[in-house]
């Protein structure tokens, strides 16, 4: 089930660790990156590559909320509902997302594009209220900002409005010199 590329990616982690087993977390990430969630086949294949019993692989994955145990949408939107975010309106943002997406927490839109769920504090409290979309974190949310983020994602574009951490924000930062004058493309766009 895992592609040759993903299997090679997992094998590429092994030299970094003293034991194969120690590479379990990046290996599970790699499997989830490809498949979108972790199922019995993924546990078996990761176990085969790391010389682990699939039951042990599944047991470790079960400990971590960020590993999905069921099919997810293309974009997994997680709303932080811990104290700082609650005080800054997280419940209102969650309600806004429910209405925008037409789903409840734990559900996926019919087109398979979005899954909505909550998450524990990802430690960006100074930007509360916060959501995470896959590996990207967004802060200082407002209903208008959520609308713009969803519109960009629906259009297949990187959503950068309100982003505070993640691969796209890192890429953006790399284009913006320290003097703040903007990169080749003028910066955020
Ligand atoms: S409470 Fe939401 S980011 Fe910390």
Summarize the model shown.
This protein is α+β, with helices and mostly antiparallel strands and 189 residues long. It contains eight helices and five strands; from the N terminus they run ααααβααβββαβα. Strands 2-1-3-4-5 form a five-stranded mixed β-sheet, covered by helices on one side.
Q: What would you note in describing this structure?
A:
This protein is α+β, with helices and mostly antiparallel strands and 189 residues long. Helices cover 43% and strands 11% of the residues. The chain has a 5-stranded mixed beta sheet with strand order 2-1-3-4-5, with helices on one face. Helix 1 packs antiparallel against helix 2 and helix 3 crosses helix 4. The C terminus is likely disordered. It binds FE2/S2 (inorganic) cluster.
Strand and helix layout:
Elements (H helix, E strand, L loop, with lengths): L3 H10 L10 H12 L4 H11 L3 H10 L11 E6 L2 H5 L2 H12 L12 E6 L11 E3 L2 E3 L4 H12 L8 E3 L1 H9 L14
Parallel strand pairs: 1-2
Antiparallel strand pairs: 1-3, 3-4, 4-5
Helix pairs in contact: 1-2, 2-3, 3-4
The structure holds FE2/S2 (inorganic) cluster.
The site of FE2/S2 (inorganic) cluster (FES) has 12 residues, from α5.
């Amino acid at each position: 089930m895992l592609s040759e590329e993903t299997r090679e990616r997992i094998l590429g982690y092994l030299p970094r660790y003293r034991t194969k087993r120690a590479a379990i977390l990046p290996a599970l990430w790699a499997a989830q990156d490809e498949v979108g969630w972790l199922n019995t086949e993924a546990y078996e294949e990761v176990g085969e590559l790391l010389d682990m019993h699939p039951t042990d692989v599944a047991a470790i994955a079960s400990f971590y909320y960020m590993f999905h145990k069921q099919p997810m949408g293309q974009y997994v939107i997680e709303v932080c509902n811990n104290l700082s975010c609650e005080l800054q309106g997280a419940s209102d943002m969650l309600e806004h997302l429910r209405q925008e997406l037409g789903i409840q927490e734990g559900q996926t839109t019919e087109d398979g594009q979005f899954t909505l769920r909550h998450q524990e504090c990802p430690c960006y409290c100074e930007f509360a209220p916060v959501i995470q979309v896959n590996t990207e974190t967004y802060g200082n949310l407002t209903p208008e900002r959520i609308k713009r983020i969803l519109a960009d994602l629906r259009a297949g574009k990187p959503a950068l409005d309100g982003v505070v951490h993640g691969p796209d924000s890192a890429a953006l930062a790399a284009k913006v010199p320290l003097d703040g004058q903007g990169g080749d493309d003028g910066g955020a766009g």
